[in-house]
Amino acid sequence: MAESDPEIDFEFDPEDLPEKHHGSGPLGPPSLIVDNVHVKYRVFGAKKAGAVTNGKPSLYNRLRWRAQGHVGATSEVHAVRGVSFVAHQGEAIGIVGTNGSGKSSLLRAAAGLIPPAEGAVYVGAEPSLLGVNAVLMRQLTGERNIMIGGLALGLSMKEVRERFDEIVDFADIGDFVYLPMKTYSSGMAARLRFAISSVATPDILMIDEALATGDADFKQRSNAKIEEIREHAGTIFLVSHSLETVRRMCSRVLWMDQGRLVQDGDPEEVTDAYREHVRSRRGKKGKKG
Ligand SMILES: Nc1ncnc2c1ncn2[C@@H]1O[C@H](COP(=O)(O)OP(=O)(O)OP(=O)(O)O)[C@@H](O)[C@H]1O
């Protein structure tokens, strides 16, 4: 995942969460189709070409390896391996899986941020993509980032200006909006990212857990926003390590393991199976050790 900050509280407080909406009614029309998608990363400077590594080398290491002439030595990380699913309007889809299982890569490919090595992603007529993280810049002020993020979400400059106060209020960052984002606490940055991300009431909202953060008050506001989007027949994707959050919020859950979609279905069933899998894996590890 692009960003991880140990200070961020990734957990939702279950009491703050809206009730989940299991698919009792008919599903809306498809909003996003992921067809046999593969995501591969090329990693420079690997010891052995072709080896699949589990970690990402740091920028420093990559530059060092390149400086040492290891330009040709690359390995490939096959992060997503032939995943297919159809998302419908009105669905809230959780994505669970252990670290490195490919959740963020799948989300980024579904969002069009990285091209699939194989397969294709089809989106409905007017997709508004969320996940402005990719375009925000820490060295720029919140104000500039609101503009950049708003434009990236398809708003015009005029529309961003009109929504500016609303975004700042939602993020609750006050005059910090005029300071570079690198001066923000992790909570402030996360709140601003969420505020920018959700300003367009998008058709498809993708939330990586860094967005699902903040104090109880902000959690309530962000949950209300998520509900609003879902009620307007949008589709929500939520990557989370908190199974409680996923069970409460989602109508459907995808379980990723080693780049593959292991299970896709009812939140309780899928999270139970996933929990069991994690437990048995821990048990095996424990026995080995
Ligand atoms: N930019 C990148 N360059 C190289 N490898 C990457 C890159 N991003 C992810 N990977 C690798 O791809 C695999 C899947 O990573 P990804 O971040 O999609 O998993 P994840 O399930 O979201 O993990 P986490 O729960 O830790 O965020 C991992 O092996 C990871 O090291």
From TrEMBL:
One Pfam family hit: ABC_tran
Keywords, in A-Z order: ATP-binding, Nucleotide-binding, Transport
Signal sequence extent: none
Domain of life per record: Bacteria
Stretches with biased composition (Acidic residues): 1-16
UniProt key word ATP-binding: yes
Disordered, as annotated region: 1-29
Location of the ABC transporter domain: 63-283
GO function terms (MF aspect): ATP binding
Family: Belongs to the ABC transporter superfamily.
Protein name as it appears in the record: ABC transporter ATP-binding protein
Lineage of origin: Bacteria, Bacillati, Actinomycetota, Actinomycetes, Micrococcales
